[in-house]
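Colleagues,

Please find the record for the two-part complex below.
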Amino acid sequence: MRQGIAETVSVPVRKQVFRAQGITRVYRTGTVEVRALRGVDLALNEHEMVVLLGASGSGKSTLLNILGGLDLPTEGRVFFRDRELTRASDAQLTAFRRDHVGFVFQFYNLVPSLTARENVALVTEIARNPMTPEEALDRVGLAPRMDHFPAELSGGEQQRVAIARAIAKRPDVLLCDEPTGALDSKTGIQVLEALYEVNRDLGTATVLITHNAGIQRIAHRVVVLADGQITRDEVNATRVLPSEVSW
Amino acid sequence: MRALDRKMLRDLRRIWAQTLAIALVLGCGIMVLVGAQATQRTLEQSQAAYYERHRFADVFAGVTRAPASVVQAAAQIDGVAQAEGRIGFNAVLDIDGMQEPAMGRVISLPADGPALNLPVLRRGRLPAPDRPQEVAVSEPFAEVHGLVPGSRFRGVLNGQLREMQVTGWVLSPEFIYAMPPGAIMPDDRRFGLIWMNESAAAAAMDMGGAVNEIALRLTRDADERAVIAALDRLLDAYGGTGAHGRDRQVSHAFLDGELQQLGAMAAFLPPIFLIVAAFLVNMVLGRMIALERAQIGLMKAVGYGRAQIAGHYLKLAMLIGVVGIALGWGFGWWIAEAMIGLYGDFFRFPFIIRDFGAGALVISAVLGLATVALGGLRAVWASLKLPPAEAMQPPAPPQYARGRLDRALTLIRLRQTTMMIFRSIIRWPGRAAITLFGVSASVALLVMSYFMFDAVERLGESVFEQANRQQVTLMLARAQNERAVNDALTLPGVRMAEGAYAMPARLVNGHRSRLTALQGHYPDAQLARLIDDAGVVIDLPAEGLVLPQMLARALEIGAGDMLRVEMLAPPREVLDLPVAAVIAQGLGQEAHIAAPALFAAMRTAPQVNMIHLMIDPDRMADLNSAIKETPAVASLANWAEVRRQFDATLSENLLTMVAIYTLIGVLIAIGVVYNAARIQLSERSYELASLRVLGFSRGEVGFVLVGEIMLLTLVAIPIGWVLGYGLAQGLAAAMSTDLMQIPFHITRRTFALAALAVFLAALGSVLMVRRRLDRVDLAMALKARE
C-alpha cells in the first residue's frame, strides 16, 4: 500500500471528506502581495455536490487548488478525511491526487497525442481500483467516439472525456474548475448532466466552480466567495436537474 | 534603441542558455577552422621564410665519393643557380652521463663558409677553420646534454675514436624535423647533428679533395625533373645514390605531411559543426516564432512590414552567429598558440612567423553568419505567410492521425506515457530527424577522433610488436659476409642475432621511377619481419619482388610485371626482377625480396649490412660500451628505447587529447539535446503539468520528456557509428602521406567510448532541462494557454 498522508491526533469526523481551517493564501510577486484567501473555514461531506460561486478573483480557484493538493496555503490547515494535507510532502500530495482526487478543468487538459480511450487509460494505468476506460467513457456517453483524438472531438465531448478520465479511478472527490466555462449552453448542459449522474450514481463528493449563477440550483449546497472570504454557505432546499438550468 | 531591438536583446537574454549551446557548436566549427588554418599558415610562413633566408636547397644527392670538381660541373646543369658539395657521415657518439651510445650525423662546413643550407647559429660560434677538434652541435641535442661551448665529447669517426669540443649551438633548415636513421620519430637525446670543418671531416673520412653529398639550388624557372636526371647522369660514375627533390628530403617531407594533415582537419571537421548549428538555429528560432505568433500578428496589424519582422528575427539569428564567431575566433587563436607550441617540440624553427590568416577569419565569419542566416530563414519565412488576423489566433492544435505505424504501436499495448513519446516523434518527424542527425553527428565525430588513437596504437603495435621484435639493430659500416651475424652473437648480452640486407635503389617502370630502399630478407627471420596491414606475416616468395600498394601504384605496376631495379650502392648493378606480389602495407615504402633470390641475381655470396639483436636487458650497458668500440658498427637503433619513447609521448598527450576531442565531440550532442529538450518542455509544459495534476510523479512525467530524447539518442548511436566509420575512412585517406599510410582500423573500444560519451552528455543535458519541470507551477500551468 502506498505511503499515505500524515495521521493526525484529531478525532476523525465521519462523513467529512475535506476540512479547511482558517486557510489564507498570499501570493507575492516582487513587491506586490495578493491575498487570494483570507481565513477560510470549510467542510465538505461525502456524497455532497457543492457549487462554489464568486466573481473573478474571489479566490475560488485558489481554494479548489489547495483542496486538490495542487497548492499549499500560507496559513491554516487542510484535512482530507483524517490526514493533514498541509503537512504532506510533494510525493505524498502526488499520491493523494493519484488515489483520491479527480480534476476537471475549463480547458479539458487532455493529452492531444492520446485518443479519448488512451487519455482515460493514462489514469487507469496508475490507479488502484479503476473502472475500465470503456466503462468510464460509456458513463459520459462517449463510447462511440472512444478512438478519436481530442482534436477530432467537440469542446463538450472533450470535456466529457476529461470527466471520464477524472471518474475512472473512482475518486473520493471530484474537483471541477469552470467545467462549462468554455462551452455553449447545449453542450454545457450535457457536461453538467454527466457530473450530476456521477454524483448521483457513484456518490462522489463534487466541488464545482462556476460564475454562472444558474448552475447553483443543481447543487446540494452553495458556497459564495468574495474577496477571499466565504460570504454565504447554504443548503439548497430543492435541487433541479441540469436540463432545467437556465443558462 | 528601437523597441524591436530592445525586444531582441531581451529575447536573447531569456534564451541565453540555448543561445550559448548553439554558439558553442558553431564556435567549435570555427575554432577548428581558424585554429588549424592559423597553425598551418604559421608553419608554412615560418618554413618558407626559414628556407628562403637560410637557402634551403632544392635538390639533394649522395655519392660514394666524388672529386670536388664535380660540384662545378653540377653548377653548370641547366636550371641550377648554386651548387655545393660537402662531406656527411654517421658517427657513434659517447656522451658523458649517457650509458648508451648516441647517434651523430656529421656535416662538413666548407672553408669559405656554407652557401646552401646555412646553419643558424643560436649560441657561441662556428668552429674556427684551423681547429680540427672544434664542432658546432644541434641545439636540441646540446640542450638535452648540457653541451655548452667548451664542453667535450667523444665519437667514433670512421672507426677512430676522436674527441670533439663544442663551440656553439646550431639549427638548420635541413633538420627542422631531425629524425635519426632507422627511427620513426625525432629523438633529441639519442640523435645529434655535428657541424665540423671541411678539412677535419675530410681527414676523418679520408676524403681530401672529395665530397659525398651535393646540394643544388634551382633557378625560378628550372625543371626539377630534368635537373635531377642530369645530376644522376653526372654522379653515376661516382656511385650516386640517386638525386631527389625536397619531396624526398626527410625533414621537409615530414613537415609537409603535417601541414597536409592540418589541412585535412580544417576541411573535415568544421562542416559538421556548421550544419548542426544551422539546424539548431532553425529549431530554436522556429519555436520562438511559434510562441510569438500572436506578437507577429500584432506587429503586422500595427503596420510593421514583412521585411522588418523578418529582419528582426534574422538579426537575432545573426547575434547568435556573432557570439559563435567570437567564441570560435578566441578559442581558435588559443588552440593555434597551443598547437604551435606543441609542434615546437618536434619541428625546430629558429623563429616563428605568426600568420593567423585574415582569410580564415573572414571565411569563418562569412560561413558562420551564412549558417545562422540559412538556419533562421526557413523559420522566419513560415511566420511571414500568415495574415495578421489569423496569426493573432492561437495556432490550431496539432493533428494526430493513426497511420500504420501508429496502429502497430497500439497493438503492442504500450503504456500511455510511452505512447505519447512515440506519437510525438511520429507527429514531428522533422524535429526528431534533426535531433537524430545532431546526436549521430556527435557520435560520428567522436568515432573519427578516437580512431586517430586506434591508428597510432595500431601503428605502434605493427611496428614494434609484429614487424620489429628486435631490441637493437646494428647498422654495419659496410656489407659483410653472413659470418658477421655469428660475430654479433659474441657481443655481450646478445641472445639472438639475425642478419638483413638493405640498400638504396631506384625502381624504374618505363617513365615512372621511385627512389627507395631494397630490403633483402633472410628466410625464417624471427625478429624483423614483413607484415601487412592486417598483421599477417608475409612469407617472401622464392623469386621476385614484393611491393607495398602505394609504391606499386606510384610505379603503375602489378604482380607479374617486370621492374628495373638500379642499385645505388656497390655493386651498383641494374637488375630486371619480376614483381611477385603487391601487399597492403601502410608504413614503409620499401621494396622487399628474399635474400637468396637477391644475391643469386647479383651473382654474389649472401651478405648482411644490418644485424637485428635480441638481448638480455640487464646487460644493455655492456653491449653499449662494446658497440662504442666496435668500428664495424656505423650506427645502431635501440628499438626498446624508441618504443618506450613512443609510448611515453602517446600517454603524455593521450589523456589531454582524448579530453579535448571528447569535449568538442559531445558539444554537438549537448547543443542538440539541450535545445530539443527545452523546446519539448516549452511546447508540452501544459500537457506535462496536466499529468502531474492527474497524480503522476515527477519521475513519471520526466520520463515522457527524457524518454523521447533518450530513445532518439539510442537510435542515433548506431547511425553515428556508421557515419563515423565513413568519416574515419575519409580522414585516414586524407591524412595518409607518401611517408605513411594511416591504417584504417577502428576498435570496439572506440565505438563503445563514443556511444558512452554521447549517451552521458545527452542524458546530462536532458536531465538539466528536466529539472525545470520541477519548477513548473501546476496551478499556473493549467490556466496559461498558449
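Chain A is about 25% helix and 30% strand.

Comments are welcome before we finalize the supplementary table.
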